[in-house]
Amino acid sequence: MAFSRVLLGFLGLFFTASALLLMFLTLLGGARNSTPLNEIYFLQVDTRNIPGAPAVSRWTFWNLCAVGTNGRSDCGTSYPDFPFDPPSHRNFDTTTNIPAAFIGTSHYFLTSRFTFPFLIIALFFAVLSLFTGFLAMCTRIGGYVSSLLAWVALIFQIITTCLMTAVYVQGRNRFNSNGQAARVGSKAFGFMWTAVVCLFLSCILYCLGGTIGRKETGYSGREHRRRGFFSSQPAEANKEANP
């Protein structure tokens, strides 16, 4: 029983740590021009016909990056929660050769901006779940607390990933329809959806670890009380009556 709890708690820790690694890699993608961060991005578009834009542009959480001759991002100054809003001054600051679907709407700006804070919240609860996960290997309450924290992290991770998928897939389709080759970043999307799966597995494993030993302990305790109250006293009385 104890070994099963330790094993389930360890597996929960493993999947929580794996999810955190993938989430942090996605969060920091584009923050620095070093491998592997310069290979992680949400959307890549051929923007050579947009005035003042690089030949190929990539969007990350931190900036709009050009693509170097080595095929990796070459990013400038980083700004947290960088929006996906091509015609605005934050991106290209022009409407020339920008798909019409991006002009006159705040949909892409707002949707892309909300992904960053939701991911931060998911990371916060996932980190808490990781720390309490060590208790999950020893105690039932640790398993339940870790599972609860992992569930909260999972909810915000799902929201983040769905928003990210919706806005950048829509953006890709708009650029492709405008004759500008675009594709989503396989690493960023792969990392985020894999993190969803890892957090889900963590929730299940922590919860299973918390249930181990519950029925056995409760039943034996009740049985002991029954025997102590109803059985032991009459047996002693019979011994005194029949020496």
Summary of the model, kept short:
With 243 residues, the chain is an alpha+beta fold. The chain has helices spanning 2-28, 107-136, 140-177, 186-211, 214-241; strands spanning 43-46, 56-59, 64-67, 73-74, 182-184. Helix 1 packs antiparallel against helix 4.
Task: Please tell me about this protein's structure.
By secondary structure, the chain is of the alpha+beta class. The chain has a single domain, classed as Up-down Bundle (Butyryl-CoA Dehydrogenase, subunit A, domain 3). It is about 60% helix and about 5% strand. It has five helices and five strands, in the order H-E-E-E-E-H-H-E-H-H. Strands 4-3-2-1-5 form a five-stranded antiparallel sheet. A hairpin with a 5-residue loop joins strand 3 and strand 4. Helix 1 packs antiparallel against helix 4. About 0% of the residues have low confidence.
Offer a few descriptive terms.
alpha+beta; 243 residues; Butyryl-CoA Dehydrogenase, subunit A, domain 3; elongated
The helical percent reads 55-70%
Shape: elongated
Q: What about the largest sheet?
A: 5 strands, antiparallel
Q: What's the average pLDDT?
A: 88
Radius of gyration: 27 Å
Low-confidence stretches: 216-221
- The CATH C-level class name: Mainly Alpha
What is the fold named in CATH at topology level?
Butyryl-CoA Dehydrogenase, subunit A, domain 3
Structural class: alpha+beta
- Number of helical runs? 5
* CATH architectural arrangement: Up-down Bundle
Question: How many distinct folded domains?
Answer: 1
Task: State which percent range the strand residues make up.
Answer: 5-15%
- Topology pattern, helix = H, strand = E: HEEEEHHEHH
Number of strands: 5
Distance between the termini: 44 Å
Strand order of the largest sheet: 4-3-2-1-5
GO cellular component, one term: plasma membrane
Protein name: Actin cortical patch SUR7/pH-response regulator pali
Transmembrane segments: 114-136, 148-169, 189-208
Pfam families: SUR7
